[in-house]
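In response to reviewer comment 3 from the previous cycle, which asked for concrete evidence that the modeling workflow produces usable outputs, we include below a single protein chain processed end to end. The sequence was submitted unchanged, and the resulting structure tokens are shown without manual editing.
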Amino acid sequence: MKHFSKTKVGLPTTSPGFQGFLIYELYENSSFLDSLKSASATKALTHKTMLKNLYEILKSKKLGIGAGFTATGLLIFGSLLMNFMPQPYQGLSGEDITFFFKNPKLLHGWFYLLFATLVLYGLNSFFCTLDSVLVRLRRGASTRGALSALTLYGGSVIHVAFMVTLLAHLVGGLYTRQGRPITIDENPIRYGDVEIRLTDLETTQYPNGMPREVRASLRLKKGDVEIKKTLGYNQPLLLDLGAKEFLLKDYGSVPQEVVLRVGDKAHSLKLRESFSLNGSQVVLAGLFLPPEFEMPAVGLVANHADRKPEQFLVPIGEGNSREVNGARVVFEDLKVSQAVVVDLRENP
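The workflow returned the following structure tokens.
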């Protein structure tokens, strides 16, 4: 036999011109309430089962192995693609992964898959570590000696270190800023409050001429403090505890001075320097390697007071002299010095 109970429920009304409460009579069936409670319990159990299944999947060793091999394969594929098709990746440098998000292309699909795989790999490592620690705690591993506990938790420590590494690469890839390359030679240059110059450059090559090792000795001066640092491939120069980083990009020689003989007088000039010639100022505008000469040549600009400037191209060598503003000019010598080209990177 069903039992009914009568309950009066007071509800506020918003009807115009009516004040107070509207009284509803609600008849409640006790067996109906029992069925509602049972349905709620079943729904909660279903949600709990789904979460448990998701947890089991995320901590699965098979998932970790699959994600690891997938990430490795995508890295190999992406490296080969960038090697054989470098044009679409112009502007990509270092660990800056924002390039792929600022320039979305179907060709970059391998990277988007790699990014998702590494996120999944990181989640798998986290839940594997969490499950491993919880299992050991339940078994009373925390009550053992320090040496035994260290042995038991060694794998978990490695997992944590791996996750920190992944997170560091993610933060670095998203927030690292790349600066313009600069050339460092024997003349000091200033970067922020630090003065840098090259003191020595040692290189070794493989039999085919490819560089094997490059060691650039730099002298850094900040205020009254002067220190020596070594820069090389896979050996960056770090400043401000790693916040600023110099990466070796290239090395070689750079021109320092050009020696010109004007009549019987020699002039040693740097780029943009000038000298007086028959009432006009002649400026060393640049150093070139024209294909028609197949040798270095200097560009001179003669600025006159009464007419337009004139341009002259003078190749190196006694037999390649040119007449400039009524005088014979010979490009005698080119003085060079060792130099390195570095990429600047600001790390978060």
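Confidence is low (pLDDT under 50) at residues 1-14, 16-28. We consider this sufficient to address the reviewer's concern, and the full set will be provided in the supplementary archive.
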